[in-house]
Amino acid sequence: MYAARAADHIIETNPPTELKELPRWRADGLSDLIEHAPLINDRAALRATMSQEVGIVKRFDRLHRAQRRLTLLSEEVDIIWKQAVPSREIVELRNMTLAGQLVIEDSLARKENKGLHFNADLKKV
Amino acid sequence: MAHVAIIGSGIAGLFAALRLGDAGHTVTVITKQRPTDSSTNWAQGGIAAILDKTDGIGLESHIKDTLESGDGLCDERIVRSIIEEASERIQDLLTIGVKFETDEDGTFNLVKEGGHSTRRILHAKDATGKEIERALSEGAANHPNITIKPNTLAIDLIQTNHGHPAQGISGVWCLDQVSQEVLTFGADIIFLATGGVGQLWATTTNPTVATGDGLAMAYRAGAAVKDMAFIQFHPTALARKNDRPFLITEAVRGEGGVILDQAGLSKWQKACQKAANEGAPMPSPSPFSFTLEHSPLGSMATRDIVARAIDQNMKQTGAENVYLVTSHLDKVHLLNHFPTIQDRLDRHGLHLGRDPLPVAPAAHYVVGGLDVDSIGRPHARECSTLRGWWTRCRFHWEATCARIWRIYSRLVRYWRSRMHWNARSKQTCIQQFA
């Protein structure tokens, strides 16, 4: 639906093409990058944390715990990201960590149980 | 004519590609694996639509059902406009070559799913997504204006002016997974049509590609996200370590299947043993279900209650799954009704009507995502130069200046009032901030 709307908007407005010279990805220092170690365990740890702490029934203490763990993980990922040759593994882990943090952040901010959000520490609506 | 880069090759990405390609734009579809690896390809159910635009009663009832399912959170104008447009989009899919199931007289076979009050769902048996992906892929593969780049993983969006998301995006960096090189790909328009985030959870019904790439990329480039807490879990997915979770439809519970935890299962089995020794009929497993603690309907309660009950039970007992038992039911009847499920169970030596089926809730669908306007343009997140303190100021990219100024001046006033807190009376302060 939105694919059609956005496409129709582009077709109607027909923007002119003006492709610019773009910066290369990390134009400097690419040669210093190293291969990172396997990240299977980090990915599994992230998924376990999300399943155990940010599942269907949430609680504030568990959300905070998950938040701390993901903060640690994202710091780890950042270090690897800056040093290592990009791979699908690290790109995905980086995205998953961020997405997880966004889920936790929104869950912590909610003051009522509505829709698919259910926090056992909040009063039933 | 514009150069458009579309990231993602599910229904949205390929649909947009065909529409833009037909209009003469140059389209590149960037996809992490192949179009057949998308969630679309795995979708079993169908698409709800009122096919006759003049059917006012049908449209109103679809709108009403949607608003009710939305728990009062939907924007009615958006719901209304989407439901009213649906018939045109279905027509587009038919023109592209999607074949929905029809009855003998040639009319569409419509079915009903949860949340719908009447039959209004078009489908292609239990493989609707596969049929849609097939038709779209065929159309895109042979299109002169569309290039598909498989095995290309988008890494990050390139901001026209780094650190200033409001000035737009002018390309994307991608990892070519064959050559392992990072490509710089320029485009006039970037179309994000990436999938969900199911892979964040240990059990999910989503394909392995669903790692929230588009969402994370856009967020890093300054886009606002919304409602990320709304993750839908399917209550009963087959939980087997060496196989991806496979949905066991709620209809199995509809036919009498009961959910038990390990303790309940042992108690019920003992009761069965005792009954067998005494020559009594097999007792019903229903009274042994922990779901009764959550609803008098037990295993037949609504999807969210059952999912919550299972989740809570697994957390309390530390178990990795609960069981769906069907051995008290008529085996022939079950096999007749659920041949696809038995097909999958065969892989694990399990049988409907005989074995307790290990099930657990699985992450299924993310309701939240990028915060966009009515045609899909993202809103920018709060400006970090305003100290990230103002957490809920969303502004449209086109109306940036005025809004920033308003927020900024309000903040300045607030800061001033804080600084002079001691010097002034509380009353003045409140007045100034208001």
In the CATH hierarchy, the third-tier topology of the largest domain in chain B is known as FAD/NAD(P)-binding domain
CATH class of one domain in chain A: Mainly Alpha
Q: Nearest-angstrom radius of gyration of chain B?
A: 26 Å
Compute the number of structural domains of chain B: 3
Structure classification of chain A: mainly alpha
Share of residues in helices of chain A: 55-70%
Distance linking N and C termini of chain A: 33 Å
The secondary structure category of chain B is alpha+beta
Overall geometric form of chain B: globular
Structure description:
The complex is a heterodimer of chains A (125) and B (434). Chain A is an all-alpha fold. Chain A has a domain at 32-109: Up-down Bundle (Methane Monooxygenase Hydroxylase, Chain G, domain 1), CATH 1.20.58.100. In chain A, 58% of the residues lie in helices and 0% in strands. Chain A is built from four helices and no strands. The model of chain A has no long low-confidence stretch (mean pLDDT 89). Chain B is an alpha+beta fold and 434 residues long. Helix content of chain B is 35%, strand content 17%. Chain B is built from 13 helices and 16 strands. In chain B, strands 12-11-15-14-13 form a five-stranded antiparallel sheet. In chain B, helix 3 packs across helix 4. Chain B is globular, with a radius of gyration of 26 Å. Mean pLDDT of chain B is 83; it is low at 384-434. The chains are: A mainly alpha (125), B alpha+beta (434). The interface between A and B is large, with 57 and 81 residues.
